[in-house]
């Protein structure tokens, strides 16, 4: 069976039950593909065993790019391209460059981080987000389990594990 | 639920003899350094000729400038404890409930600071403040100063300029009076809550906190002009109040973080976990950058505009052999170090980084105040020597003793605070 195609979905009403369920389901050796919730649930990423996001690294690199760009631009303009004496200062008066440098650093870090996040979480304009269950945008928490990654576990066993850990319904969902 | 009750909420800090011993040893080393510093200054060339108005430089002047730096600095840390306590209530914050008693314990230094500040002013006003000399207001005197004369009413009103600075003294007394009043009000309400319980105390404390914050907004700014900016009487900066407040705030937050970590290390405050420490670290990180923003805003405008009456402040410091290097030490300790070290999440969650950075920040903001006070009072006769280090240690250990000994008299955790449970479940 192909990966990332066929899923078993557990639907949960309450975040505390959900957190317990995640713990119990993982304890049985079943690997969870993803949990969808209408709002951030504290502690969920730890229960799911996620690694820390690498987004800050992207932010730092984009920030560094902004700093470099801003300083290069200003030094080039003020020192070589069109030197001007302002307020009796040297052409390349470093303190004057700080505000623009700061702004460009923040701008590029923020835009870069948002862009990277959009692309990496498939929210890019040309992306086709997969909707597991529309109710995860309203009042239900959806736990998705990939059938293929849990091929060694019996389907019925997965469904039982979801039910016994408090899922109000257990559905299947396939994508083309 | 109600897991906060699993802990011993009546736990008190035991101010043991071994902790006291460490504080006394530090204070003793400070006193020793201070005495050596004074002796070496008094015996060798302590009477060198100064230039200011023909006055000879005397070592007592340096001693008074030192006392003044620490008076202002530790008053700031003390009032920031009360201020941060009030902020928690005004912002209806729940996460910090387990840390409230640490913040408020700093306020016990305020009455002592008030006495020290007033006493130092009465003994050493001529050594610290140029505007206290009556000749600068006397048109017949060759040292008559038109600019200071124009600002004279700010110190002397309603008395005649050059006599007794009644307006200045009244402001000092009123500020300290109200600060101590608000501190007493907040702390006794908080202690009463321990005994009585209920939510009414929380509402009452929030009301008093809001009133205090309004008063503090005005008084912190004016006290910065009075106690620090008026040393360089000719010079002025419109954001000086914010600058001093920012410096106080970062130092105060670092002190709160250090005491919290110290108590954790001693086995107290079981409720406090790395999430609370992380939040304190964020505050230190964020407000270090805030301080830098204010410092740089002040510097850049003066540098860019290049108006002599403003630039003189930085020329006195940057182009001085004595103070020039400390400007850069100041920036490195208070901006570069916390910015780089505390940037990652892991650093803010590990006590060792926070201990290092917070200690260095407390030293760094002392240097900030050193740079505000000494150039205007001592000129090229200043510097960081044994006298300065000793005085800082003496004040620091006295402050620690007062704060910790009063912390040990009440419960470490406000056990009937309505948001205690929220603080226990704090998770970031």
TrEMBL record, chain B:
The chain crosses the membrane at residues 22-43, 63-87, 99-124, 164-183, 210-228, 240-263, 283-305, 325-343, 352-373, 385-407. The keyword Transmembrane applies. Keywords: Membrane, Transmembrane, Transmembrane helix. The keyword ATP-binding does not apply. This is Quinol:cytochrome c oxidoreductase quinone-binding subunit 2. The lineage of its organism: Bacteria, Pseudomonadati, Bacteroidota, Cytophagia, Cytophagales.
